């Protein structure tokens, strides 16, 4: 089953995501306009700068189509700035706020881990991805400080005097506070591809059923 996954390509680390997906045999499309969403099986919102990305998305008429994508239950994965865009609530935003796409029932703290020079790498325990710890690169990273009841926590880390959540899944939405596309570990991309495949399989099954009843 050939998959096509779009990567929002307004700003930030989209090329790195595409390279990972190509290694896994997935076709990619760079999404800059609403019409680029047509025919995609899944979508990635990369890391970068969420305020800029939100403003550019607004200018290009992408905010409403992206909201519709999430509401329709289609697979979407936000990394770092992308995770901020997907959150229903964000704290530590720039004055005047920023456009959010929303859908993910969490509160993110935008620059929780500090500034650029406080960026760091660590290894996370992620039972969903297997025994081996996962290398994670945090760059001016956000953290999830509140998780809604339908949100599954996939990874936690010690924050500033408390544990914070850095990876979650809520049905069709995957979110990671760090940058898996900057490592050599393909497991996060594999997990997202599995979500996309499951969704596509369900769609084709429904189509078959519809044809049978026609
Ligand atoms: N904290 C940044 C923001 O607000 C995100 C940083 C990143 O994506 N590496 O957009």
List the helices and strands and how they pair.
Elements: E1 4-8, H1 14-23, E2 27-31, E3 42-45, H2 50-59, H3 63-71, E4 76-79, H4 81-86, E5 87-91, E6 104-109, E7 120-124, E8 134-138, E9 143-147, E10 152-158, E11 163-170, E12 173-176, H5 187-213
The site of glutamine has 12 residues, from helix 4.
Describe the structure.
There is one protein chain. The protein is α/β, with parallel strands linked by helices and 214 residues long. The protein has a single domain, classed as Class I glutamine amidotransferase (GATase) domain (Rossmann fold), CATH 3.40.50.880. It has 5 helices and 12 strands. It has a 7-stranded mixed beta sheet with strand order 2-1-3-4-12-11-10. A 3-stranded mixed beta sheet has the order 5-6-9. Strands 7-8 form a two-stranded antiparallel ribbon. The chain is globular and about 60 Å long. The protein starts with a strand and ends with a helix. The model has no long low-confidence stretch (mean pLDDT 93). Glutamine binds at residues 47-50, 80-81, 84, 110-111, 139-140, 142.
How many whole angstroms does the radius of gyration measure?
17 Å
- Overall CATH architecture: 3-Layer(aba) Sandwich
Low-confidence stretches: none
Estimate the strand proportion. Answer: 25-35%
Chain-averaged pLDDT: 93
SS-based class: alpha/beta
CATH class: Alpha Beta
**SSE sequence, one letter per element:** EHEEHHEHEEEEEEEEH
Number of helices: 5
Tell me the span between the first and last alpha carbons.
25 Å
Could you state the oligomeric state of the chains shown? single chain
Q: Can you tell me the overall shape?
A: globular
Major pleated sheet: 7 strands, mixed
CATH superfamily: Class I glutamine amidotransferase (GATase) domain
CATH topology type: Rossmann fold
What small molecules does this complex bind?
glutamine
